[in-house]
Amino acid sequence: MKKNNVRRLTVAALFAALCFSATLFLKIPFLNGYIHLGDCFVLLAGWLLGPLYASLAAGIGSALADLVAGYPVYIPATFILKAAMACLACFMCRKHSSALRRILSAFFAEALMVAGYFLYEWALYGIGGALPAVTGNLIQAAGGIATSLLLWQVLAPILKKHDFKF
User: Using 50, 70 and 90 to split pLDDT, how confident is the model at 1?
Assistant: First the structure.
């Protein structure tokens, strides 16, 4: 395995652990699920890793958190949605990573999450069970956007100083 691939795999594993930890330990129970800060690291993975590693890190870390937290019914949706969020954030910022593109990528990735969980919960619980959960998902989305953008402001100069690239 090439040195760059080992480095990328190692950072992806760290992001999976960060997604897992921030989802599992920084959570507030809400209706059928919980609000958490894991989306911060889902978005950061998308901005820093390639689409494959970012998607796998976000999907695996977040889905494992659902398993350990006792929400196994959400594992398939969580894996797909968090992987898709990271991939979308990656593709939107891959070539041009301006502040506006980063903000838009966070917004659209979180909108994907809110819509995806709404459709999944509608299939599971009907419209009456899906609609109330939108509030929690919107709060989580706002928190994910805010924390990821704030953390990016701290990390970007450090990454630039150390010429962090994959």
Answer: low
Is the model's pTM score more than 0.90? yes
Look at phi and psi of residue 164 and say left if phi exceeds 0, alpha if psi is from -120 to 50, else beta: beta
CATH class of the domain whose range is 3-161:
mainly alpha
Q: What percent of the chain has pLDDT over 70?
A: 97
The predicted model gives 53-58 an average pLDDT of 98
Residue 98 Ramachandran class (φ > 0 left, ψ -120 to 50 alpha, else beta): beta
Q: Taking a C-beta distance cutoff of 8 angstroms, is the pair 133, 115 a contact?
A: no
Location of structure tokens 């701290």: 154
3-state secondary structure of 166: coil
Is the per-residue pLDDT at 96 higher than 90? no
Question: Buried b vs exposed e over 109-140: b needs ≥16 C-beta within 10 Å?
Answer: bbebbbebbbebbeeeeeeeebeebbebbeeb
Q: Token pair of 90, please?
A: 């990656």
Tokens at 41, concatenated: 């690291």
